[in-house]
Amino acid sequence: MSTHPNPRRLLVIDDSEAIHTDFRRILTDEPLKSRGELDLMADALFGPEAAGSSVDKTVVEVDSAYQGEEGVARVREALAAGRPYALVFLDYRMPPGWNGAETLRHLRRVAPTLPVVLCSAYSDYSWAELQAEFGESRLLRQLRKPFNRQQVRELALGD
């Protein structure tokens, strides 16, 4: 977790454990259990990731939910505890539960001003359909998988 007294709290809602690991790797100092051969090759070619990072990873705290229902419950709990999330990264597809759009509908009821980044390699909804239902605003963004590390950092740190 974070050593900063007031970390920027983020929630990742995705059914893939690997995606949660990727977000933690990009945004926190949390040690990874194992590093793949490609990671080691990238470090050899470009240097350790932390050395080139412009993000102070100690000011970000990443929590996980593996289904939409669990994610909405975590947002409720965070609000009740007075420790709201600053941003949610939300997957479009999370079988067998709610998909991203359904989860977003519930999130908007619980926390109407919570910024959400919808993430996926594909979508069951067009971006135009999502904007028509949820409105065009800075509260809703889109991030395509596989995602760009710098783009994730910029979204996570906000304005």
TrEMBL record:
The modification 4-aspartylphosphate is found at residue 91. Residues 9-159 form the Response regulatory domain. The keyword Phosphoprotein applies. GO terms for biological process: phosphorelay signal transduction system. Keywords: Phosphoprotein. It holds the Pfam family Response_reg. InterPro entries: Bact_response_regulator, CheY-like_superfamily, Sig_transdc_resp-reg_receiver. PROSITE patterns: RESPONSE_REGULATORY. It comes from the Bacteria. The keyword Kinase does not apply. PANTHER family: STRESS RESPONSE REGULATOR PROTEIN 1, TWO-COMPONENT RESPONSE REGULATOR. This is Response regulatory domain-containing protein.
